[in-house]
């Protein structure tokens, strides 16, 4: 307490304290409100633009992640110019939004479908994630990147972008700016991929199934995979989704492996006690449990109702998931800092770009081998 | 990075772990509401 405060009667002193407490939640609440308004704008653009520009393939091709990030970046510029951004930043809950979205994503994954129809996808996912992760990890080491940033970039480029980076960040206890930087890189590379990969698949004359497998194994964010798959047609979208869902399901395995590696190897010191199993549990991202639980619950639920009813219910869950992903993408745009990219320097960009190229080539080979005879019926 | 001892993700926000559980609970509760029909088809814009 300052001397000035001490001179003020207690009844009067309560007012500034109450005001501070009010401000402590009012600004984050306003921040959430900003995110919601921009998300509603995203939804309006997603539905309105194809109607306003009827006949335009481009208008139809643009998916909600593009609008969400663009509006987030626009809001970022406005709020930064007005000096409000840092005050509102407490409401930009990217991690919460995307984790909730991922839990809801579990509802659209039928374990039986994955087990029976996605054999090639599982093989591709395991080979691709292992190879790309290890290549990125190795290259990051050669260029002297911090181990935590290496882990984040490796997880992001090999599994599923921002969500994998978030899961890996929890596992290796990465710094927030490293997570923000990895997320920025993911977005910077994923956005052009939405348009480039379908165009390349068409130019290479790939079948829809191979194109889908290539897209699903390649593009980092699930939303961008869906967008690119949609551009390549229904069959490509189906295969792309199966491949991506398989990679999503492998997040937990990679996270557990990363947790163990960092707890027992990277951070172990001669004088330090060996981390116990409790440490593994403490670092395990709990939303993965929600993701698996949602899948199990929905898989069971779908056996108790008719196909039409089940499809409608999963559709509602998917709509909710889309909302949370939009909230997350808007938040990413609002949180994006050019300074974090500048601060990290050129080496992570080189690592991410090289890993992306390796991912593109390897995924093309695997997709061609594994999905050439595959047809979606 | 300029800060020699920057906070980790886990240390920086005490809410990080709570956020993990909160996302799990909110996601599963929403799913339960959808399955039980409390959130019907057409309600989500």
For the structure shown, list the relevant keywords.
heterodimer, A: 377 residues, mainly alpha, 82% helix, B: 45 residues, 56% helix, elongated
The share of residues in extended strands of chain A comes to under 5%
* Uncertain stretches of chain A: 1-12
Please give the oligomerization state of what you see. heterodimer
Supply the helix-strand structural class of chain A.
mainly alpha
Shape of chain A: globular
**Biggest interface found:** A-B, 41 and 33 residues
**Average pLDDT of chain A:** 80
Mean pLDDT of chain B: 73
Q: What is the radius of gyration of chain B computed over CA atoms, rounded to a whole number of angstroms? A: 18 Å
What is the overall number of helices of chain A?
A: 19
Q: Got a strand count of chain A?
A: 0
What's the order of the H and E elements of chain B? HH
Care to describe what's here?
The complex is a heterodimer of chains A (377) and B (45). Helices cover 82% and strands 0% of the residues of chain A. With 377 residues, chain A is mainly alpha-helical. In chain A, helix 9 crosses helix 19. Chain A is globular and about 70 Å long. The model of chain A is unreliable at 1-12 (pLDDT under 50). Chain B is mainly alpha-helical. Chain B is built from two helices and no strands.
Short description:
Chain A is mainly α and 377 residues long. Chain A contains 19 helices and no strands. Chain A has helices at 3-6, 10-52, 57-61, 64-81, 85-88, 94-105, 111-117, 119-142, 147-172, 176-203, 208-218, 222-231, 234-249, 251-266, 277-283, 287-302, 307-335, 338-344, 347-371.
Secondary-structure map:
The complex is a heterodimer of chains A (about 375) and B (about 45).
Chain A: H1 3-6, H2 10-52, H3 57-61, H4 64-81, H5 85-88, H6 94-105, H7 111-117, H8 119-142, H9 147-172, H10 176-203, H11 208-218, H12 222-231, H13 234-249, H14 251-266, H15 277-283, H16 287-302, H17 307-335, H18 338-344, H19 347-371
Chain B: H1 9-12, H2 15-35
